[in-house]
TrEMBL record:
It comes from Uliginosibacterium silvisoli. It comes from the Bacteria. Residues 5-244 form the PPM-type phosphatase domain. This is Protein phosphatase 2C domain-containing protein.
Length: 255
C-alpha cells in the first residue's frame, strides 16, 4: 500500500479575491486531487472553481475508482455543473475555469490524470521532471506551430488566452494521461495554476527539489520564490504537492 502525503498552498496574490480552489479526497485505496483556476467578473470565478472542485470530489467519493474513463467522466461532470449554473443564472457573466485532476490507486500503484486549460500537473521522479501536461492555450499553439519556443510561454502578452476551458460554450478539449502509469517510491506530483508556474521555470523547480527533504519544504521554498518574483497585480496562485512515500536520499559528490 502506498503512503501518500499531501501539502498545498492557495493564496490571493495581489488580487482582491482568490479565484483558485483546490481539494482532495482520499481513502485506503482510491485517492483524488483537483485544482481549478476560475475566471469571470463580479466574483463568478470563485463560483466556477468551487463548483469544479466540489463536483469533482463529490462524484469521485460516490465512485472511487481510478481509470482513464473515470477521470474523463469527472472532468465532463464538472463542466456540466458549471454550464448548468450558468443556464440557471442567465444574468450572470461568462464564467469559466481550468481544471487538473489526479487519481491514484494506493493498492495497485496506478495513477491517471486529466486537465483542461493551463493548470498543470508535473510528475517528478528521482527529483527530475518525468512528465508534464501541455497547456490548452494560444501561446502553446503558437509554440507547437513553430512560431516561438518555450521561453515565450511566460512572457507573451496573450499568454492567458485559453483554447479550452470548463464552462466554455465552445467545444471543450480534455487531455487525459491515457494508460495508467505505475508510481514509484519517492515520486512527487505537483499540481499548480498559472499564477504559480509563471514565476517558476522547470529547471528552478528541479533545483529547489534537489535540496528539499520533503514535499512540504519544497513547496515552502517555491512559494517564497513566487512571492518575491510576483509583479504588480500578480495573480492568485495555488500548488498541491503529493509525495509518494519518502524522498530518496540526496547524495552529494565532492570532487
Amino acid at each position: 500500500m502506498l503512503a501518500l502525503q499531501t501539502t498545498y498552498t492557495s493564496q490571493t496574490g495581489q488580487r482582491k479575491r482568490n479565484e483558485d480552489t483546490c481539494g482532495y479526497w482520499t481513502s485506503d485505496t482510491a485517492c483524488c486531487w483537483v485544482v481549478s483556476d476560475g475566471a469571470g467578473g463580479h466574483g463568478s470565478g470563485d463560483v466556477a472553481s468551487q463548483l469544479v472542485v466540489n463536483t469533482t470530489l463529490t462524484q469521485f467519493e460516490a465512485k472511487p475508482e481510478v481509470s482513464e474513463q473515470v477521470v474523463t467522466d469527472l472532468t465532463t461532470g464538472a463542466h456540466s455543473a458549471v454550464m448548468e449554473h450558468k443556464h440557471r443564472n442567465p444574468e450572470g457573466d461568462d464564467m469559466h475555469a481550468t481544471v487538473a485532476v489526479l487519481l491514484i490507486d494506493a493498492g495497485t500503484r496506478q495513477a491517471v490524470w486529466a486537465h483542461v486549460g493551463d493548470t498543470r500537473i508535473y510528475l517528478f521522479r528521482r527529483r527530475k521532471i518525468a512528465l508534464q501536461t501541455r497547456d490548452h492555450s494560444l501561446v502553446q499553439q503558437l509554440i507547437d506551430a513553430g512560431y516561438g519556443n518555450e521561453e515565450i510561454i511566460r512572457t507573451h502578452p496573450q499568454r492567458n488566452m485559453l483554447t479550452s476551458a470548463i464552462g466554455s460554450n465552445d467545444e471543450m478539449t480534455i487531455s487525459v494521461s491515457g494508460t495508467p502509469i505505475l508510481v514509484e517510491e519517492g515520486d512527487l506530483f505537483l499540481m499548480c495554476t498559472d499564477g504559480w508556474w509563471e514565476y517558476l521555470e522547470e529547471h528552478v523547480m528541479e533545483e529547489m527539489l534537489e535540496d528539499a527533504t520533503s514535499a512540504k519544504e519544497w513547496l515552502e521554498v517555491m512559494a517564497q520564490r513566487v512571492e518575491s518574483s510576483a509583479k504588480e497585480n500578480a495573480d492568485n496562485y495555488t500548488a498541491v504537492a503529493i509525495q509518494v512515500g519518502e524522498l530518496e536520499e540526496v547524495t552529494t559528490v565532492i570532487r
